[in-house]
Amino acid sequence: MKAKRLIVLVLLVLGCATAFPAGKTSLFAVGKPAAGERDLGVIFNTNDILLDLESYQGGVGAKIGLGQYVLRPMADILLNTGDIHPPFSLTLGAVLEKHILPGPVSLYWGPSAEMGFTSILTSKVDADNWTQTIAWELLSAGCVAGIELFILDSLSVFVEYSLALTLGLNTTRTSVAGSVSSNTEFTYKLNLGLGNQTMLGLVFYFKRKKP
Q: Which domains can be identified in the chain, with CATH numbers?
């Protein structure tokens, strides 16, 4: 599956790179390269463009120009209201992007860090018999490599891969006939996969750097 995603990503880059004539910043706009020439943008993350009233997963963030770099702080949330202990997660993170190929298809890389909380009901018989897992992501640090594609001069989408080491705590809570017990353990793992919480990033730019 990861190999297929990587192939699709490479094909997207090659296809877009040949599709944009020289000097164009997007499919519909002509001007200077947009990537790396913006001061501020607003990011919307979404896992599904179809909104479910009982479930929501997405987030919001910003892109802040810092000279040769772009700071990307983000907050992502997963919320489901349809269970006794509904799945819920909150993640806060940031990436410092360094764009190495400005233009309508902009390649970038940079360090990343995040922390978060996740609560999932792993099994449920009734209101008095269930098992819940609570995961604290104390720190996840690593780096990302991605592509930002400018659809319009002030609108882009991005996708990225991430390599990160995550340290955390996992707590398992079990209820048997209404009596609740819990167990906590330290965890660590090395992740290599889609970054940005595996969600689509949509960026609206509304402030351009002054010449």
A: 2-208 (2.40.160.20)
